[in-house]
Amino acid sequence: MFDEYPLALKNVETIINAKIMSEEDKIIAQPVPPPPPAKATVVRAESNLSKRVEQYEQVHALNQQGWTKIAIANKLGISRRKVFRFLKSATFPERKGRSDRGKSLLSPYNKYLLERWNEGCHNGTKLLQEIQEQGYQGSYATVAAHTRRLRDTQQLQKGESKINQSELKVFEPKKSLLTVRRAVKLILRKPSQKSDSDNQAISLLKQQHPNLNTAIELVQSFANLVRNHEPEKLQEWYEKANSCQIKALENFARGIKEDWAAVKNGVTYLWSNGQVEGQVNRLKMLKRQMYGRASHELLKKRFLCPV
């Protein structure tokens, strides 16, 4: 559900990075704003997201009505793989972002450009020449767009090249972006493994929206009762989650209720069937590797040999 609040994650990230810079450099610093995406790109992305969410809801609705997966795929004009993926997920599966998003030919030179900018060099042509000597092979337009962001951050007029001692410095955020995945990892981390900055980030995140505060409290309490083997708290947690008005958590709570005995045993006892499941997966992998190539006897030897 945290992917529904990207602005909240961004706000926390900005607050933390600004605090780090002011503490380390004893100045009030300004972060470099990221380049805004093209309006057409934003509109297209929002339209595609709405379409995928609608398809996800239709798939689950038809599945509850008894439609087969093939029939659902034919009805909605989507692939069977997509139908399987939607049905496998209790909440809408957001697409993963590209690992190289935000990177360009200029990225390796950002640190140098910031240093030169804070020293007072605001001439795009001169900065281009300097980084070309270091190996930059991109265009002037990319450098000009970057210096425009820096100028806008400091509210400088075009042509101003001198920097006052009292002028606010510019910096790129030192910490990694607070993505949905990193936020979830931070929230689920054991209390003993959280630093003061981790707790600060979680506290700030809770303040961004009432639903985020509720979700974080419920997620952390569930993780703690599982870690501490406290089945007596499971019923109370279920009642809170089932009435929290957050769809993702309500669906999760209903899933627990449907398999209550197994979940309660999992919380109660120290052992699990994880080792068995791992061996089953290993056997399936070996069978796929040897399909149509060898006998059952060889498969048995390969499977039992490590044991």
TrEMBL record:
Pfam families: DDE_Tnp_ISL3. Residues 54-117 form the HTH IS21-type domain. PROSITE patterns: HTH_IS21. Gene3D superfamilies: Homeodomain-like. It comes from the Bacteria. This is Transposase. It comes from Waterburya agarophytonicola KI4. The lineage of its organism: Bacteria, Bacillati, Cyanobacteriota, Cyanophyceae, Pleurocapsales.
